[in-house]
Amino acid sequence: AAAVSRVLILAGTATAGAAGAQQVGPIFRDGQAQVVPAFSDSTTWIREELWVETSFDSDGDGRFDRVHVDVTRPAQTGGGGLRVPVIYESSPYFSGTGSTAREYFWDVRQELGAPSPPRTPMPSIPYRGDHHRISNSFVGTWVPRGFAVVHSEAPGTGASQGCPTIGGDPEALAPKAVIDWLNGRARGFSEPEGGEPVSAAWSTGKVGMTGTSYNGTIPVAAATTGVEGLEAIIPVSPNTSYYRYYRANGLVRSPGGYLGEDTDVLYAFIDSGSPERRARCDRVVRDGELVPGEDRRTGDYNAFWKGRDFMQRLDGIRAATFLAHGLNDWNVMPEHSIRVYEALRKRGVPSALYLHRGGHGGPPPLELMNRWFTRWLYGVENGIENGPRAWIVPDGGDREHPVPEPDYPAAGVVAVTLHPTPGGVQTGGLTREAASGGGRETLVDNFSFAGAALAQAEWTEHRLLYATPPLTAPVRISGTPRVTIRMASSKPAANLSVWLVALPWTEGTRRAPDPYESLITRGWADPQNHASLEHGEPLEPGRFYDVTFDLQPDDQTVPAGKSIGLMIFASDREFTLRPDPGTEVTVDLDGTRLTLPVVGGMAGNR
Predict the structure, then answer these.
(1) What is the Cα–Cα distance from 342 to 351, expressed in whole angstroms?
(2) How does residue 603 score in pLDDT terms, banded at 50, 70 and 90?
(3) Does 116 score more than 50 pLDDT?
(4) What per-residue confidence (pLDDT) applies to 11?
(5) What separation in angstroms does the CA of 407 have from each of 29, 390, 413, 478?
(6) Catalytic residue at 329?
């Protein structure tokens, strides 16, 4: 009775029972759930607050953690007996976040392989444990269309119990518990401690998850558990591998815009849970797991990172997955979605991909999201699973009007291999013909120079630049470029950075994190990991090694009149650690190559 009373109090002016007499249901047109007037009066919506019991005890208090949940649903799901599916978002951000001031991040001004300078602790996040409404996101969009909307706070944040674990198992098991509750398999309570049972008899048990960034990461995590009832997810800019978020091919590398961030910094940024638990969580999770596991000295892929890499758990995903990503997202980079999409496609999981030209965030158009959720949550045969698998916003296009493609990469892609020719201190050549006797060229590391400045320099010893002749026909790159660089270092460790650029360089009008119109894509690697991602070894100065790695995936057209340039340098001041200048990196041109996925090949170009 207490739980039911709380529902009616939060429901507004109308009771669920009175509204239920309307005997209305969802309406579908053109394969989409339509706004239903009877569902649209927000004063009649039923709003619930509860805590769902999980299967883990991350704070070690001897009891299963409970996560804070809120529900918003049409009034007709009360006394009228209507049952509806759920749109669900979970987040660690709902109760506030910490500081983004660089003084609380790791100082990247250090030698490679050396201990990191001490980090200044971030100020604590004020506790907000008494709020009843977690969020109103998605409510105005989906409740009028006949869905309930559920939010939950991630473990260790807000009024949820437990500890933040930054990619640990609780971040998958907490939303699984909520989905289990929506299916009658887990217990919900009206209070964080004790309380009356709360059920979800109004739910059909079919759940779709969505969200952006961390909120998009959690749907992927939940899906890897294979939880029954999670039918569809639409992750937007999800982080699908914490290693690839904070490292790059063995290199300690920051996400764009957050130089010096790492898992322990992100922990402090979301640590908004009960102050009574924070000291223990700091000791057990932050200091006992995150700081030693992240290993800022080597950047190697270890058991800690493997446990936070969803690519290791994709076999568990059964939910239809529609991934969305910006091709100029240098925070959570495009590979996070594209690698998962390609893997799920091979596994036969219903999957689709939306790619736009912008940076971090940006969901698919509402029509596509509606068709996706309507198909998998309401079972409406709208054919979306049989249509285009990729929706790509073209250069200069509108996010709301992506071009449908049969798949990604685009049809007709040909692998084109290009080889550098001498002259990289100014601008050497980049040709399809492999020629021997190219010799060796040397650059001198200096983090003081930004990549954009190096790309524009007429002559500099701090990078090597090789470019094709001006294109006589447009070239569409669709897929993941790959480089092999035969290199030697004057020291046992060196950063290795690569930018693919369109020349001559022009400054664009894009806002941060990518204001560079002429930047095509980029990538980074630690030469010490040339043979193994798990075990880097110091370089023997002067010895040559082949370092092969992928650049970030892309889909864009380089116009006629531009040249495609391969820029090789060492420290990237926007992303990497910053050792003292002076390390020399020598490139053997005969052993260096760039492979581009080009639609139709380079036909029509010299």
Answers:
(1) 9
(2) confident
(3) yes
(4) 31
(5) 26, 5, 11, 11
(6) yes
Annotation marks residue 135 as catalytic: no
112: which 2 tokens? 């490679």
Supply the angle between the helices 170-182 and 214-224 in degrees, to the nearest 10: 70
Phi, psi of 455 (to 5 degrees): -65, -30
Which of 451, 477, 494 shows the shortest CA–CA distance to 585? Answer: 494
Contact 327, 399 (CB under 8 A): no
How far apart are alpha carbons 64 and 115 in whole angstroms?
37
Active-site choice (203, 213, 237, 518):
213
Distance, CA of 315 to CA of 348 (rounded, Å): 11
The amino acid occupying position 35 is V
* Alpha helices (runs of H) in 307-418, residue ranges in sequence order: 335-347, 366-377
Q: Give Cβ neighbours of residue 383 (< 8 Å, ≥ 6 apart).
A: 31
Of the candidates 476, 242, 234, 222, the one whose C-alpha atom is nearest the C-alpha of residue 353 is 234
- Residues 252/301, Cβ–Cβ less than 8 Å: no
78 vs 23: CA distance, rounded Å:
11
- Count CB atoms within 10 A of the CB of residue 511: 9
Q: Which of 70, 264, 282, 329 is catalytic?
A: 329
**Closest CA relative to residue 364, chosen from 509, 232, 222:** 232
**Count of other CB atoms within 10 angstroms of residue 63:** 11
Report d(CA 516, CA 505) in Å as an integer.
9
The neighbouring-strand residues paired with 485 are 547
Using the predicted structure, report yes or no on whether residue 73 has a pLDDT greater than 80: yes
Residue reference for tokens 């809120």? 70
- Contact by Cβ (8 Å): 73, 197: no
Structure token pair of residue 67: 């996560």
pTM: 0.94
CA-CA distance, 131 to 94, in Å (whole number)?
A: 10
User: pLDDT digits over 207-222, tens only?
Assistant: 999 999 999 999 999 9
The active-site residue, picked from 360, 419, 462, 530, is: 360
68 annotated active-site: no
Evaluate whether 65 touches 58 at the Cβ level (below 8 Å): yes
How many Å is the Cα radius of gyration of the chain? Answer: 26
Backbone angles phi, psi at 52, to 5 degrees: -100, 135
